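Go through this one:
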Amino acid sequence: MRHIYPLKDLLLLAQITKGTYYYTVKRLKRPDKYATIKDEIKNIFHAHSGRYGYRRIYLELRNRGHSINHKTVYRLMKELNLKSMVRIKKYRSYKGDFGQIAKNLIDRNFHASEPNQKWTTDITEFSLAGEKLYLSPILDMFNGEIISYKLSKHPNLLQVLDMLEDAFSKLPDNTNLILHSDQGWQYQNKRYQDKLMQKGIRQSMSRKGNCLDNSIMESFFGILKSELLYLKKYTSMSEFEQDLINYIDYYNNKRIKSKLNGMSPSDFRKLHQAA
């Protein structure tokens, strides 16, 4: 339009001063000092399938040696129209209601100063394409790492016992470890309780119907479903099952956490053990 109308008329119409106009033109011609960082941000965002918001991207940039303020990362992501696709949705786990109940030794104190001090377990259900899949994991409260897990088409005792066997293969006897759970029927079963006793593990249980007593595992299930199940439209359970296996490996070894100083659970454990 400037070729048709005088500049001063266009500025008058737009209510922009001549100084503001020339300042803006000059600024637009400058090289973008954040061009490299923007490329890094886009690479990180897409490498993690849109799961990372600005806080984790800031931590990852810091891990890569970049010195940048988290507010700048937030602003640049807005400019790039990059926004985490994850929205945490409430999850309600499967609950049993009979058998012998253990005391709540954890009592919502989920802090652990060493690996293998406090573990927790639970079972969650996935329903897709007319099929169901049940995940039974053990999580270490020290770093949130998944120690072992088993998948099954039905919630059954063998799934939980096999999960224990895998976890116990990585653990010496008589460590005085606490293994927490809800009051699900599997955890009240004598075979399950005998295995814990034989390994020298103390059993702990949430109060009946109180999900906050095992909120650390509820949180993991919420993250898992938000970052995997809700981000993709699955057409078969077999496709989802393979992605679930890959996600747990990603969660343990690549997904960084701010409370772990920007490290993944496995890297945080290795650093602690090397100290």
Q: What stands out?
A: The two ends are 67 Å apart (CA to CA). Residues 88-95 have pLDDT under 50 and may be disordered. The chain is about 45% helix and 10% strand. Residues 146 and 248 are 7 Å apart (CA to CA).
